[in-house]
């Protein structure tokens, strides 16, 4: 039927395709574990269930919502439709203030409470992350 050269070529191409598909699968699987999703308070309110994955919550820091108790900072993030209470222990960026945009990274305890492990507010007072801007505008 087929000669030896044709069979070798076929197996070589098959081996390359298998290796390539396995590589793509492993890369996508490792990226899946390191992806952190961004959600607004309104998106969190409509979640079917609270998952234990790390996420980012963004919006504006609600006016008169910041309270500092010993080592813990509590504040409210709002997208002007819904709000979520955030608790954080750690160093706060200099630009973190009421009425400013903020992105908090951490874990959702329930639909109303978020435990932050990192506060991302390292921008000038005029900049707003694109995710926060679209969440606030409701697009």
Tags for this entry?
single chain; 139 residues; alpha+beta; OB fold (Dihydrolipoamide Acetyltransferase, E2P); 2 domains; five-stranded mixed beta barrel; 3 helices; 32% strand
Walk me through what this model shows:
This protein has 139 residues and is an alpha+beta fold. It has two domains: 1-35; 37-137, OB fold (Dihydrolipoamide Acetyltransferase, E2P) (Beta Barrel). Helix content is 32%, strand content 32%. The radius of gyration is 23 Å and the shape is elongated. 19% of the residues are buried.
Helices and strands in order:
Elements: H1 4-34, E1 37-39, H2 41-45, E2 54-61, E3 67-69, E4 72-78, E5 83-88, E6 101-110, E7 113-120, H3 130-137
Parallel strand pairs: 1-2, 5-7
Antiparallel strand pairs: 2-4, 2-6, 3-4, 4-5, 6-7
Q: Total strand count, please?
A: 7
Rg over alpha carbons = 23 Å
CATH topology of the largest domain: OB fold (Dihydrolipoamide Acetyltransferase, E2P)
SS strand fraction = 25-35%
